[in-house]
């Protein structure tokens, strides 16, 4: 009896250790996978409506980190807003953190994109009465179908992001941009940003959300003959690339209205190059091709 009790205690200890450390046998992992496969009620990916991008990625998955990188003025915020609006229209709840622009400035871009009106007219409050009516109707319609929330806070911390996640329960979190976030108070800023990146990855896994980070690119690409970005072009920390499931580089094409998205890392699909038409005056990104390389 004593030996039997000892065996039972040991088995319980093993099971407890598995639960604490996340250890699972193949059989347990298989059961979890089959349960996920058969469950049809929960959405695990969030599509954008950009057919080529969705085809390559399958949509943005829960528990992942997506990086959108680009040079200053290269359209990162416009692209992120387009993604947020499109995912919101398709049922995803999006929480957008802005550390450079006010809510009014973000709404100027959204209104310009929805209306197809030059953003300078909106900025200068130079809309006709018909355009004002159109703006009200479009924004009212979008507010009912799109599920967007904005946080305007300078140098937001990971703890504050976690706080807002508990309030809103989003599917997707957009951080505009990573370099402006509050960092641990250590001398090595490279290491400090890496710690922020690691924490955001853990947050995405724990909350089962997609975290989308806007990141600055290094200047070195400007002196490169091909102008084609690589993963080493992410500014300040190698941890950003390591923690990310997707890394895309946004590059406007010289003297054209075209912009390319170089998806250099895609853990859950294939990399590729995607062509868009960028209309900065309307803050719009539209797909140009129906296939990807």
Brief digest:
The chain has 293 residues and is of the alpha/beta class. 42% of the residues lie in helices and 22% in strands.
Describe the structure.
By secondary structure, the chain is α/β, with parallel strands linked by helices. It has helices spanning 2-21, 26-38, 51-57, 76-89, 103-115, 119-123, 129-145, 158-168, 189-207, 239-243; strands at residues 45-46, 60-61, 64-70, 93-98, 147-152, 172-176, 210-216, 246-252, 258-266, 272-279, 284-287. It is globular. 33% of the residues are buried. The mean pLDDT is 86.
List keywords for this structure.
single chain; 293 residues; alpha/beta; nine-stranded mixed β-sheet; two-stranded antiparallel sheet; 10 helices; 11 strands; 22% strand; globular
Helices and strands in order:
Blueprint: H1 2-21, H2 26-38, E1 45-46, H3 51-57, E2 60-61, E3 64-70, H4 76-89, E4 93-98, H5 103-115, H6 119-123, H7 129-145, E5 147-152, H8 158-168, E6 172-176, H9 189-207, E7 210-216, H10 239-243, E8 246-252, E9 258-266, E10 272-279, E11 284-287
Parallel strand pairs: 3-7, 3-8, 4-5, 4-6, 6-7
Antiparallel strand pairs: 1-2, 8-9, 9-10, 10-11
Helix pairs in contact: 4-5
Helix content: 40-55%
Biggest sheet overview: 9 strands, mixed
What kind of oligomer do you see? single chain
Task: Kindly provide the radius of gyration, computed on alpha-carbon positions and rounded to a whole number of angstroms.
Answer: 22 Å
Percent strand: 15-25%
Spans of at least 5 consecutive residues whose pLDDT stays below 50 are: none
The tally of helices reads: 10
Distance between the termini: 67 Å
Taken in chain order, the helices and strands follow as HHEHEEHEHHHEHEHEHEEEE
Strand order within the widest beta sheet: 5-4-6-7-3-8-9-10-11
Helix-and-strand structural type: alpha/beta
**What sort of overall outline do the alpha carbons produce when their principal axes are compared?**
globular
């Amino acid at each position: 009896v004593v030996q039997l009790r000892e065996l039972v205690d040991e088995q319980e200890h093993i099971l407890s250790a598995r639960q604490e450390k996340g250890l699972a046998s193949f059989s347990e992992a298989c059961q979890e996978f089959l349960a996920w496969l058969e469950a049809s009620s929960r959405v695990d990916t969030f599509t954008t409506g950009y057919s080529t991008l969705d085809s390559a990625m399958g949509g943005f998955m829960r528990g992942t980190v997506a990086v959108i990188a680009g040079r200053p003025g290269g359209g990162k915020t416009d692209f992120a807003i387009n993604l947020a609006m499109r995912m919101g229209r398709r049922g995803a709840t999006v929480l957008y953190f802005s550390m450079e622009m006010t809510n009014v400035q973000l709404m100027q871009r959204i209104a310009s994109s929805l209306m197809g009106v030059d953003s300078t007219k909106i900025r200068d409050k130079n809309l006709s009465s018909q355009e004002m009516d159109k703006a009200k109707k479009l924004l009212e319609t979008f507010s009912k179908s799109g599920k967007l929330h904005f946080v305007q806070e300078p140098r937001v911390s990971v703890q504050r992001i976690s706080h807002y996640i508990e309030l809103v329960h989003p599917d997707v979190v957009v951080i505009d941009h990573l370099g402006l976030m509050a960092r641990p108070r250590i001398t090595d800023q490279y290491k400090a940003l890496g710690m922020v990146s690691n924490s955001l990855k853990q947050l995405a896994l724990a909350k089962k959300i997609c975290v989308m980070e806007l990141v600055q690119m290094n200047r070195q690409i400007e002196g490169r003959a091909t102008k084609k970005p690589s993963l080493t072009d992410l500014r300040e920390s190698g941890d950003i690339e390591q923690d990310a499931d997707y890394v895309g580089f946004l590059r406007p094409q010289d003297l054209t209205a075209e912009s390319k998205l170089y998806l250099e890392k895609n853990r859950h699909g294939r990399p590729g190059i995607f062509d868009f038409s960028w209309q900065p005056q309307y803050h719009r990104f539209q797909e140009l091709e129906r296939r990807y390389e």
